[in-house]
Design goal:
Chain A: Residues 291-410 form the Erythromycin biosynthesis protein CIII-like C-terminal domain. Chain A: This is Glycosyltransferase. The complex is a heterodimer of chains A (411) and B (89). Chain A has 411 residues and is α/β, with parallel strands linked by helices. Helices cover 43% and strands 14% of the residues of chain A. Chain A folds into 2 domains: 26-210, Glycogen Phosphorylase B (Rossmann fold), CATH 3.40.50.2000; 243-395, Rossmann fold (3-Layer(aba) Sandwich). Chain A has helices at residues 36-54, 65-68, 84-98, 102-132, 145-152, 175-191, 213-216, 262-275, 306-310, 322-329, 344-354, 367-379, 381-395, 399-410, and strands at residues 26-31, 58-63, 77-80, 136-140, 157-161, 206-209, 226-228, 251-255, 281-285, 298-301, 315-318, 335-337, 357-359. In chain A, the strands form 2 sheets. In chain A, strands 3-2-1-4-5-6-7 form a 7-stranded parallel sheet. Chain A has a 6-stranded parallel sheet with strand order 10-9-8-11-12-13, with helices on both faces. Chain A starts with 25 loop residues before the first strand and ends with a helix. Chain B has helices at 2-16, 40-54, 60-65, 69-74, 77-88. With 89 residues, chain B is an all-alpha fold. Classes of the chains: A alpha/beta (411), B mainly alpha (89).
Chain lengths: 411, 89
């Protein structure tokens, strides 16, 4: 099922069933500038774009040129779509957002970033559509402008979701906050003349979800246009590593995406205490200067070749960044997750619900709590078995090829 | 009601750890999201401890489910104590 048949095949002319080549299609990817939050989205979309190009289709991008250009294939067609006034404020808004946590960050994200950004991007996205003339638009899940532009131009559009967070009702405990977001999404559409209201985070044509279905649990009740295609493959980053220092004891990778600062440094100090005297080797991915006197079983490296290292370790301690969680689970590794912000608490909850790890706190983490959690995921078989189940769900997902198949049918 | 407040403060201090609160005096005006920056796992632990202490009338999840985003962000220790006192009547 590589492509749709554009004509009913003639029985007399061609009795065999053959693969039908899809004629060349044009796809426009829309990505909003959301700092590091964009990185995962671009990784997944890059992989799909490359597959579409390999199949002979044309792709283009629209979004914030300065943040998008360095992350996509050099020479890609890119239409700038953020109004200048808003672009000037973008850096400050990112900073304000990153200073917030929890529901305060959520409110800021929607009220001060996503909705104004949607307004600021809409004219540019429409211009990109008018110039590139795509057959379908692929909208990052948080790019509000792209679905509205596609709907106003009567084009099919797909949602590209780079994390699992939105698929388990992350705000179920706060139904009025959930409703508030839906109202913002409704108002955004009404502001631009759309009265048939949709949740712009979930296309009614195609939702590509780049995650491990095993993290979400039962995905069978999702409608058929939700495609859980698996996490985007990581591009291995070759880096030097003292492999000979790994002496055969169970190894643990401790890695945080969090920016430098006292909370991060504290977490690594606590983690060092947690593994002191335990029969493991821990690899800490952080600035060695921040941990001057580590225990003998801790190896501190500024950066690690994550892809290769995950093949050697037995468990991972992380902050719940979606890419790290998926990369670990793709190796069947159980996790200890100390989430910080945004989708991380949701993903930590998903890991725990899947049985593939333990959630611990971050800012006030304690060495004994961390040691208990780590010992549990290393020693108790159910965690490994659950992580293995998630690994299977990743291995059996359709991946980039299925994403491209689905998009070909859409366009 | 003052008893409830003292008890809420005690449970919260216990969940967070006294050594983490040298600069924060927890009182009725203290917000969960602000000065304490409660993490979701701590909030869950706090809710479980309240329930263990007060039984079904301390249904914190049901209480917060009725709050809008601004109310959630402004939720104070005193609000929870008041809720417990109100639920007792």
């Amino acid at each position: 099922m590589n492509a749709r048949r554009v004509r009913v095949p003639s029985l007399l002319e061609d009795p065999g069933i053959r693969r039908v080549r899809t004629p060349e299609r044009r796809f426009l990817f829309a990505v909003p500038p959301l700092g590091d939050g964009t990185a995962g989205s671009v990784t997944a979309n890059n992989a799909v774009a490359a597959e579409l190009v390999r199949r002979g289709h044309k792709v283009a991008w629209t979004g914030h040129r300065a943040s998008l250009e360095p992350r996509i294939r050099p020479g890609s067609r890119l239409y700038s779509a953020v109004e200048e006034d808003f672009e000037r404020r973008l850096h400050g808004l990112h900073g304000d957002w990153l200073d917030l946590r929890g529901l305060a960050a959520l409110r800021f994200l929607w009220e001060d970033l996503l909705v104004p950004l949607g307004h600021a991007m809409l004219p540019g996205v429409e211009k990109a559509i008018d110039r590139f003339r795509p057959d379908a638009v692929i909208a990052d899940q948080l790019a509000l402008a792209a679905p509205v532009a596609a709907r106003r131009r009567e084009l099919p559009w797909a949602t590209s979701a780079a994390t699992s967070a939105e698929f388990t009702r992350p705000l179920a405990a706060f139904p009025r906050a959930e409703e508030w977001i839906r109202e913002l999404i409704a108002d955004f559409q009404l502001d631009h003349g759309i009265e048939d209201l949709l949740d712009l985070r979930f296309s009614d044509h195609l939702v590509l979800v780049f995650t491990a279905a095993g993290l979400i649990g039962d995905t069978s009740f999702f409608p058929g246009h939700f495609a859980f295609v698996g996490p985007a493959p990581e591009r291995p980053a070759p880096r030097a590593f003292p492999w000979d220092d790994l002496d055969g004891r169970p190894a643990v990778l401790v890695t945080l995406g969090a920016p430098d600062g006292p909370v991060r440094d504290r977490f690594f100090r606590v983690a060092a205490e947690a593994v002191r005297g335990v029969d493991v080797q821990a690899v800490f991915e952080t600035d060695p200067g921040a941990l001057p006197d580590p225990p003998p079983n801790v190896l501190v490296r500024e950066q690690v070749p994550r892809h290769k290292l995950l093949e050697r370790v037995s468990a991972v301690v992380c902050d719940g960044a979606h890419d790290t969680v998926c990369a670990s689970l793709a190796q069947g590794l159980p996790l200890v997750v100390a989430p910080v912000r945004d989708d991380q608490p949701v993903i930590a909850g998903q890991v725990e619900s899947a049985g593939a790890g333990v959630r611990v706190r971050h800012a006030r983490a304690r060495a004994d709590e961390l040691r208990t959690a780590l010992t549990a995921v290393l020693k108790e078989d159910p965690y490994r078995a659950a992580a293995e189940r998630v690994r299977t769900s990743i291995a059996s997902a359709g991946g980039v090829a299925e994403a491209a198949d689905r998009l070909e049918k859409l366009a | 009601m003052n008893d409830d407040l003292a008890e809420v403060v005690r449970i919260l201090t216990d969940v967070l750890g006294e050594d983490f609160l040298p600069d924060v005096e927890i009182g009725p005006e203290t917000t969960f999201t602000g000065a304490l920056a409660l993490e979701s796992i701590e909030f869950a632990a706090f809710a479980a401890r309240l329930r263990a202490r007060y039984g079904d009338r301390a249904d914190l999840p049901a209480f917060v489910a009725g709050l809008d985003l601004d109310e959630l962000l402004g939720l104070t220790v005193g609000d929870v104590a008041d809720h417990l006192a109100g639920a007792a009547r």
